[in-house]
């Protein structure tokens, strides 16, 4: 059976047969109140504790309540304060000021959150939600609504020793909004670029007088277009949550979500191809690679996705030694993607289901002079999807007949143990995990018997890290970790892709500046990954291949929220990603679209007193260095360096009139200067997303 891959403006599609090839061308501590999610007062016992832009502790890195200064791994956090002040509209926008995160690889494409961390593609296998793997199929990736998010933790480096299937670059843990013990209510209306109309609401607080039950209900409705008029940005989102806390030792939180969103099935621009050089290698002309001609047709371009999830988090503290935690979630996702190429309609329908459960026992005890936090656990995840492909045979506006189908079930079971040891100023973390994989993949023409491929595999992964935490807030560390992740729905010329494995060595230093709500972080790293899946475009055909690579570099980040109203987030990263095994002509080449240099700076200031008290202004600059447009490193496809400017202004209207207490007006803009250059990845070229402005009026009471 000959499989080929549809070329789209993103890597997130399953390999499909030739019928879908048509789609191819396409000075004092801050005085701010701390934001504590699931915390007990001021204790460092929550899922994540933050103060303005600064995160102080969290569970994402170790699954235990550990101060980030004492966690010997590179971690960045996008806090609730940052989300409110920048108003990102996607996961990519939320991560755009995070060191090591390369967003915009595929230009403007609202369909998928495709991005890399430390040069490694993390689109499919690194996104977690509330500490559980977020299941996804080749064309069924959950969309993120930032308004429903409390914070985002970026854990760089292998985390498979406790999380199982995840990339060598680390994980992105998205933390959902949870019920609050103090009543909280807000409504907001928005308008902006491309006819945007949106209304948000967020309500929370106790339900009963005894304050043992708490609720939260978050939602929005949006009607909007995008810079490509054929692409919608419509959305209905609602996320209910309920917490039962009968006593200080027991807590049960139920988290739900439903979202119905529509965007564009085709988001690519037409690419022009031609002879670039003569027989002597001289450049004849720099023809346009990506034109401003939209590659689809607005009459048949809706990509509707309906997604839902329901789950719970349970915690019971038996005594000062033992605490039991369990998380579980069921997820479901349905896609109906219309697209058009050269006047011919195509259709992809995909239904995805997944279940994940993780049970862990935390034991705190002492052996001689050493304190231990021992974590033992077992988790299970199951993915199941069915996909149908259709193309051609009918006039535009009608659904074509289904000609091809694929399906897969994938089950992973993992058992893990981790010990965090503390002796004087030393911190040693060591962990091991074993995963068992069982997978069955089927593909074939509609109505015919499918071809079946099975995989059974087992893999041991681990992590070891050592740090020294000084009394003045400085903590150097070293770490080593390995990773393992199976590739869902990936079919190559030789069959189903084998799991991807990797390892990383990292050394770094963390510094919490005494007397200030500020922290500095720096790290150097070296990653080796085997059998990673990447996309290449050859003669207009997007194909998946497996690749060995090496990625090394360093990162530095600083965040602060000061008492004078000034907040800052600054970062710089250097990344050299090289191909170790792909094709003979690419070995040693730089990996496509991974720049050596990236840097960002965001400053925000809120006036604390005087006639304009409550006025806030923020601005940011994001620099993305030059990169290469394909793995052959052809100069004609070089991507120029570019700089993006973002901005935000807001005003608390209570300072005009006390009767307006709780009302805030805000205007935010991304890519304010409308930087719109081409970016080529894997041999196909795209355009950056242009300027976008959002104005909002919010009322809290």
Automatic annotation (TrEMBL):
CDD domains: ligand_gated_channel. It holds the Pfam family Plug. Residues 244-672 form the TonB-dependent receptor-like beta-barrel domain. Residues 68-171 form the TonB-dependent receptor plug domain. The keyword DNA repair does not apply. Gene3D superfamilies: TonB-dependent receptor, beta-barrel domain, TonB-dependent receptor, plug domain. Residues 1-22 form the signal peptide. One of its GO terms (molecular function) is signaling receptor activity. InterPro entries: Beta-barrel_TonB, Beta-barrel_TonB_sf, Plug_dom, Plug_dom_sf, TonB-dep_rcpt-like, TonB_sidphr_rcpt. It is a multi-pass membrane protein. Keywords: Cell outer membrane, Ion transport, Iron, Iron transport, Membrane, Receptor, Signal, TonB box, Transmembrane, Transmembrane beta strand, Transport. This is Iron complex outermembrane recepter protein. The lineage of its organism: Bacteria, Pseudomonadati, Pseudomonadota, Alphaproteobacteria, Hyphomicrobiales.
């Amino acid at each position: 059976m000959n499989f080929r891959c549809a070329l789209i403006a993103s890597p997130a599609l399953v390999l499909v047969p030739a019928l879908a090839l048509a789609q191819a061308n396409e000075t004092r501590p801050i005085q701010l109140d701390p934001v504590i999610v699931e915390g007990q007062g001021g204790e460092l016992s929550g899922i994540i504790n933050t103060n303005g832009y600064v995160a102080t502790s969290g569970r994402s890195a170790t699954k235990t309540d550990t101060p980030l200064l004492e966690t010997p791994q590179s971690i960045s956090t996008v806090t609730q304060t940052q989300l409110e002040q920048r108003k990102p509209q996607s996961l990519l926008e939320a991560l755009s000021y995070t060191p090591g995160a390369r967003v915009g690889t595929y230009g403007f494409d609202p369909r998928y959150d495709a991005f890399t961390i430390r040069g490694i593609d993390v689109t499919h296998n690194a996104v977690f939600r509330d500490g559980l793997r977020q299941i996804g199929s080749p064309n069924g990736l959950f969309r993120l609504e930032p308004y429903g998010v409390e914070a985002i933790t970026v854990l760089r480096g292998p985390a498979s020793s406790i999380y199982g299937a995840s990339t060598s670059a680390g994980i992105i843990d998205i933390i959902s909004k949870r019920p609050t013990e103090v009543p909280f209510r807000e409504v907001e209306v928005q308008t902006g670029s491309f006819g945007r109309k949106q209304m948000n609401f967020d309500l929370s607080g106790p339900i009963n007088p005894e304050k043992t039950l708490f609720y939260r209900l978050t939602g929005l409705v949006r009607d909007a277009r995008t810079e490509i008029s054929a692409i919608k940005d419509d959305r209905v989102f609602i996320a209910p949550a309920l917490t039962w806390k009968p006593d200080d030792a027991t807590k049960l939180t139920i988290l739900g979500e439903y979202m119905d969103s529509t965007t564009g099935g085709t988001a690519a621009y037409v690419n022009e191809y031609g002879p670039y050089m003569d027989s002597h290698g001289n450049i004849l002309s720099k023809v346009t690679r990506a034109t401003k001609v939209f590659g689809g047709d607005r009459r048949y371009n809706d990509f509707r996705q309906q997604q839902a999830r329901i789950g719970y988090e349970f915690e019971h503290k038996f005594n000062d030694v033992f605490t039991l935690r369990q998380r579980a979630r069921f997820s479901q996702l349905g896609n109906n993607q219309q697209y058009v190429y050269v006047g011919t309609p195509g259709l992809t329908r995909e239904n995805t289901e997944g279940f994940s459960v993780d049970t862990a026992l935390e034991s705190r005890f002492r052996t001689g002079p050493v304190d231990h936090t021992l974590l033992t656990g077992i988790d299970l995840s199951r993915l199941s999807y069915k996909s149908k492909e259709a193309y051609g045979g009918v006039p535009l506006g009608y659904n074509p007949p289904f000609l091809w189908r694929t399906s897969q079930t994938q089950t992973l079971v993992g058992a893990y143990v981790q010990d965090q040891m503390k002796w004087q100023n030393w911190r040693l973390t060591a962990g091991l995990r074993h995963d068992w994989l069982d997978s069955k993949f089927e593909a074939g023409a509609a109505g015919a018997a499918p071809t079946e491929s099975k995989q059974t595999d087992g893999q041991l992964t681990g992590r070891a890290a050592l740090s020294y935490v000084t009394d003045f807030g400085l903590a150097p560390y070293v770490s080593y970790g390995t990773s393992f992740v199976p590739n869902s729905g990936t079919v190559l010329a030789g069959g189903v892709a084998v799991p991807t494995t990797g390892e990383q060595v990292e050394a770094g230093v963390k510094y919490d500046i005494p007397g200030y709500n500020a922290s500095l972080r720096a790290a150097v790293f070296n990653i080796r990954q085997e059998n990673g899946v990447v996309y290449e475009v050859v003669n207009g055909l997007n194909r998946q291949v497996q690749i060995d690579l090496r990625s090394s570099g360093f990162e530095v980040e600083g965040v602060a929220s000061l008492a004078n109203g000034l907040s800052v987030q600054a970062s710089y990263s250097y990344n050299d990603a090289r191909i170790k095994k792909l094709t003979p002509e690419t070995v040693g080449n730089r990996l496509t679209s991974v720049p050596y240099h990236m840097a960002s700076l965001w400053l925000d200031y809120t006036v604390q007193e005087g006639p304009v008290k409550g006025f806030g202004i923020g601005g940011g600059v994001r620099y993305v260095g030059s990169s290469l447009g394909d793995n052959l490193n052809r100069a004609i496809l070089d991507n120029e360096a570019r700089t993006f400017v973002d901005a935000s202004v807001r005003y608390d209207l209570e300072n005009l009139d006390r009767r307006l207490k709780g009302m805030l007006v805000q205007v935010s803009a991304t890519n304010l200067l409308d930087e719109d250059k081409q970016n080529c990845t894997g041999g196909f070229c795209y355009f950056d997303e242009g300027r976008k402005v959002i104005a909002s009026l919010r009322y809290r009471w």
